[in-house]
UniProtKB/TrEMBL annotation:
InterPro entries per the UniProt record, alphabetical: Kinesin_motor_dom_sf (IPR036961), Myosin_head_motor_dom-like (IPR001609), P-loop_NTPase (IPR027417)
GO molecular function: actin filament binding; ATP binding; calmodulin binding; microfilament motor activity
Species of origin: Vidua macroura
Region (Actin-binding): 184-206
Gene that encodes the chain: Myo1b
A Pfam match: Myosin_head
PROSITE patterns: MYOSIN_MOTOR (PS51456)
SUPFAM superfamilies, per the entry: P-loop containing nucleoside triphosphate hydrolases
Protein name: MYO1B protein
Signal sequence interval, chain numbering: none
Amino acid sequence: QDNSFEQFIINYCNEKLQQIFIELTLKEEQEEYIREGIEWTHIEYFNNAIICDLIENNQTGILAMLDEECLRPGTVTDDTFLEKLNQVCATHQHFESRMSKCSRFLNDTSLPHSCFRIQHYAGKVMYQVEGFVDKNNDLLYRDLSQAMWKANHSLIKALFPEGNPAKINLKRPPTAGSQFKASVATLMKNLQTKNPNYIRWFKPNDKKAAHIFNEALVCHQIRYLGLLENVRVRRAGYAFRQPYEACLERYKMLCKQTWPHWRGPARAGVEVLFNELGIPEEEFSFGRSKIFIRNPRTLFKLEDLRKQRLEDLATLIGKIYRGWKCRTRFLLMKKCQIVIASWYRRYS
């Protein structure tokens, strides 16, 4: 119930993680269908980019205004920071404040004067502004960093690289909010380069007790995590997609016309392959550069056929090798027999 700067930073990171989940599972997937020319009905979903922008925008974001309050001369308090928020974010649909210029919240007696509320993707959260400025301006004095950098322990020395005398910077150290914002940006950049696998977990009850399942709480989590929209996209979309070249290379041994080499475009080879295997047309679609398979069972069928075909090919290779080996031995023995017989007839 009592949320301050720390919880605000944690929730900002959660918003960014939810944003990358939306980008990769809802937005990017639907855009891929459109790019590939697949017939698709757009599924609406809530994009929390507007909330991330409210927090991290370089001009009007909450973190930017907090840094501005920490750096500007004059009397700076948490109340002046809240006043600035009331001026800049008054009309934002996800920001609420008791003193906001937006008349919707002037009569909201549940919101104290020293608080503001953000409507996050998971619900509304109220923050106490007390301590925001001090916690954001939590600077480490330069002489302390230099003292820690001189420690003999390598770990302690590595934790304070700014204490290196060769890297002395007379500029004001970055605030806690700006450092965390940069760390989150680095994390997002790193995640964008990976192949993500998502595991969504639910809190079954608020008591942290076993064998208690609160259905209303779990349903609430399913809604705000965007899982309903994700399931709709998955059910209406395709479980598997692969470029034509890779698909043909993997499954070409299943068709006599494509094995061992296909002379022609990869898409035409995939069409011949799927027609030969008798896969129903509703189970796949041809995009501009990829083949889209709707149900996992179709993919499992292809993999089973490929596994069986590889076993057959291995048996064939082994049979041919054993035949070659026996024939080679037979020819050698026949040659030896002829030599022995010719010498025997000479001396008989």
